[in-house]
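Reference record:
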Amino acid sequence: MFYKVKNSEVEGQHQLIEIAPIIISKFRLLIAILLSIISCFAFALILQWNQRLYQYFLFIKTTEHNCTHYLVSNSTNEKFICKKIRINNISYFTYRFLKYQLKDNFFQPVNYVESSVYLDEKSKKLDLLLNNQISRDIRQNIYGNSQLQIPIKSIFTYLFQELTSPFYILQYFSVLLWIAEGFIIFAIVLLSFSFLACIINYYLMRRSRIQLQQLATIQQSVKLKDNSIINGSDLVVGDQFYVHDNQQLNCDSILISGDVMVNEATLTGESIPVPKQSIKELTNEISQNTLFEGTKVIQVSQYQQNIALVIRTGYSSVRGQYFRNVIFPPPPSRQFYLQACKFLVILGLFILAIFTLLYIIQYQNMNYSSKLIIIRYLDVITWIVPPALPIFFSLAQAISLLKLKQEDIMGSNPIKAEEAGKIDTICFDKTGTLSTLGLQAHDYYPHSDEILDIMACCHHLVILKDELIGDPLELEMFKKTNWIINFDDEKYFKVSNKQKTFKIVRIFEFSSHLQMMSVVAHNQNEDTYTLFIKGSPEKLIQMSINEINNSIHEQLQIKTFNGLRVIGLGYKTLLPNQINLDRNLLEFQINFSGIFTLENSLKKDTSHVIQQLLNSNLDIRVISGDNALTTTHCAFESKIIENKSNTLIIDYDQSSDSLLIQDLRQQIPSSSRSSCDGKPGSQYNFILTQLDTIYNNDDCNYAITGNLWSILMQNKINEVSMNQSNDLQQYNQLKQIDEIDQRFIECLNKVIKKTKIFSRMKPYQKKEIVQYLQTQLNKYVMMVGDGANDCSAIAESLVGVSFSSSDASYTSPFSNRSDSIKCVISILLQGRATKRIIIELFQYLVLISVLKFTGTALLQFQGMNFGDFQYIFMNYMSSVPVLILMTLSSKSNTLTTSKPNDDVFAIPNQLQFYNIFIFTSLGCIILSIIVIQYSQQLKIPSPIEIYIREGPLNSVMMLANQYYNMLICIILYQSHPFKNKFYQNYPLTLWIFGCLIIAIITTFSNSSRGWLSIVNINDEITDHSDLIVFSVIFCTSLLCQICQITIQKLFPTIKPIKK
């Protein structure tokens, strides 16, 4: 049995799809306990590692009445188990700090204000909220309080989870093997190093969470309506409290009395005053009456009490959703790591085969004890799978964030530092990203008193500390009129010039859904009332009942074509008995008067940065909520398109089921309209046919609007039922749905591939575009935006960049403190460098592990092995600094038309890996043959119970490892085109050459060999053995380097970026 979920906006990016009631099976639980005991708790660990197995082994499906838990599935197809809670005979569960309840056979997030409100129940619903009879304790149990509690694991919980992970289990296995072989000191060092790394990781995680908690916490006292004073974090849903100046809000609440001015910079990043009015009736659109958590009150009404009702607290608030996104980021891509695991398994089988062959040929004749042979077989796992691998991957990612921080780019997710190296497509928002946030008044048309009246009245400016403040657009518009504004003893304001005076009696704030705002103004000279309205020109023209002058249409086309921000202006004459009507009745059948234009210039370096991105073959697109012509001009100025005059703008008019095509290739931009025939399915057939024809032109730029995108996403043909089929033709049409759907997908793919400009896009549509690019076109997308409107698209993209300093920017993996989009280039360069570093870390760790295995295998020909300190030196004193310093390699300064090829099984990566593997192994084999041939034969005990830890072969293999450990790093290091030159990593260069100098001294100086248990090889083998060893290592390394350079030229480890 499954329950569907009624999704809500409070879920944010963590939507659930379906819920299944489940219960723990006592029989299965008993079996699990028995299996765990029999397997020494190995089965319990497997259940802990594999959540799917845990879910399906221990739990069975049942009815809702009998269940103890719920199996919840989210939008990314992940499954989680949540415990059932019963409050007042209603079933609840909590998923990622958000509580869900069962209601009418659907689960839905608990929401004090239901999103769906019937018209005839508005006042009833509001009264119900204001006069809730549920006790405060029950409300707190259901909705929680206003404290955003960031979860921080205790060190014991963290250590238990980490130290029982597969990574550490492999460590324990390695330690046991080393102890069994007699390498007790090395085993202790190995375990200590891993435990220390775990403690450091916990410290970093805890510090990050504490910083997040400090950001989330708002400490202040709040006065409730009953005059009691409580801590703001103790507010619960249903509480009514007084709002005062300079208050930072602890929760989302609706204003039920008074008028308030707030600064919503923490949500939007724009530090402008936003007016909030008390709610009169409950509707679907209450944002104009909502005081959002984290925002700051800058002014309250002096004429009445200002009281707010708490409606959302904790993680269900808008601000809480941002923090929820930080705590639960999208699951990262694991393709590289999965490929790496497969490669290690294949390599492990190959090494096992070699060891088996050596055993058959040589080892079994040497009478090794069964214990040593078994241990050596098991030991292959520890050689091939370097236990420290995840540690150094994480280190490389963390250091990348530190490097970006030096450029004022803040990163919150280390994994994204690596994933930035995959990006091939970048989507930019327009306003505040490509262009500045500032606006400058340009002009208005026509030049008439009627237009000036609208511009002077239609705004919601306020006075604060003797300064006129408000939306920058409205400030610029009012200043253009040269009228006088007066706030004395007025609820809103009066405006006047020498001829007339208007008093504002009602204000309807701007609604993104309606795309307009309006005011009711009283002309005190003529004692008349007028509704003045401003908003989207297209929307106002659509609502207009008057015949619009052709010159206005022409000016609208010209102004938008030139990239100006255009605001439509209109009015409606009202009777005195109409001024208190609902907004939807007032904003209807208006008179369109003209337009007001503003300039929104590009940021200084926008075009230069975009040109660099285009030169690197990246696919650049602009996704904006602005007018299509304005967005097209911005795309042209920023060089995203070469010629704006060669652009087709495609819109869709839903009222007439017709495509609107605006062709800018004509001298005077014109529009054409084509309509479909109205039969079921013909709408989509028509759109597909027209779009397929339009997009066949490869020499044209394309721009589409949100209206067209919306209709493309709906595929309405699927909504036509068989009951509507009145004739055979319609029936046959419906039978071809699959064929049309396939055609639709192909057509949509073509549209998205060729469209560079997306205009009039709502926030959820921006997310859909990014989602489509990534899922359907297999693009790796970076979304760059400036505020809360882009949050969902930023979160949906593989890598997101925000310019805002708001709480909303926390959801972005990267946020830039400066205003320049040059940060995008820095992130891409650092991402590619990090990706290349991680590939090299993986290859280096595996190669030196294989090299040690090769040395050990050769040593066993004489019953030898490395000593305790020799292993410690090779694994930690020599290699670990190299690995750490490799992560410090700096990024290149120039973007290229390629990105790192992170396919482990790609031919270039395989060739380079096996080139080094073959030559280093060959060097060790040649040296072992020389030693065995010319040194005095050692007495090998029979049977061999313990290894000999000192001798000529041991000394030569130790020297070879000491050289090769350094030389492999030099051979592997690739600078061009993602990193700077090897020598520019000064710490790594000094360490490598320092270790090589020590190796040379150890090779040629008898007095410097004792510390590594190296014997005098000249005496033990033959004269000038030191020179022979050095020559073999030098020649094999030189040949390896030559082959490596040749392979890199013939088979470069890069992946060309294709648009």
User: Anything to note?
Assistant: The CA atoms of residues 450 and 593 lie 8 Å apart.
